[in-house]
Amino acid sequence: MFTDVAMKYYAKELDYNCAETMLYAANEYYDLNLSKDALKTMASFGGGMAIGSVCGAITGCLAALGVLFTKDKAHESDTIKTLSKRFHTEFGKRFGYSDCAPLKDIYRTDEKRCSDMILVAAEIMEEVVAYGKTLA
Q1: Global pTM exceeds 0.85
Q2: Rg of the chain's alpha carbons, rounded to an integer?
Q3: Secondary structure in 3-state letters for the chain
Q4: For labeling, which of 18, 52, 76, 110 is most exposed (least CB within 10 Å)?
């Protein structure tokens, strides 16, 4: 399951932020074959882009969805737009928020860190990828 791979990359000793975690996990689970430089693009998305904005678990998953469902560029079809909206909406339904700051205030602890958001994002990712395959 994608949740298992995501939690493997969220291990404290690896020290990835939430966005990095999700893209590294997706790279392995979905066999994206991303380069180290491509994976490093998520470094600046942790902590809601360092300003408490959109949760890194979301941005990491959306990056992976882009790789999975975009042939060349986003404007070739509505698929990636549809899947991005679906992911973001579902995450918001489950937590009540999609921004890092309130999520951390409510769910983050020193012990479990942001594992709640990682697990839910991984569940939603599997659901959205399955749905996306029906659109292709």
Answers
A1: yes
A2: 14
A3: CHHHHHHHHCCCCCCCCHHHHHHHHHHHHCCCCCCHHHHHHHHHHHHHHHHHCECHHHHHHHHHHHHHHCCCCHHHCCHHHHHHHHHHHHHHHHHCCCEHHHHHHHHCECCCECHHHHHHHHHHHHHHHHHHHHHC
A4: 110
Distance, in Å, from the CA atom of 30 to the CA atom of 94, rounded to the nearest integer, reads 24
Structurally, how many domains does the chain consist of? 1
User: Phi/psi at 97 (nearest 5 deg)?
Assistant: -145, 155
Provide the domain limits for residue 24: 2-135
Q: What is the largest CA-CA distance in the chain?
A: 44
Residues of the chain with pLDDT > 70, as a percent, come to 99
In this predicted structure, the answer to whether residue 136 has a pLDDT above a threshold of 80 is no
Over residues 37-60, the pLDDT tens digits come to 999 999 999 999 999 999 999 999
Q: Which amino acid is at 130?
A: A
Q: Give the total residue count for the chain.
A: 136
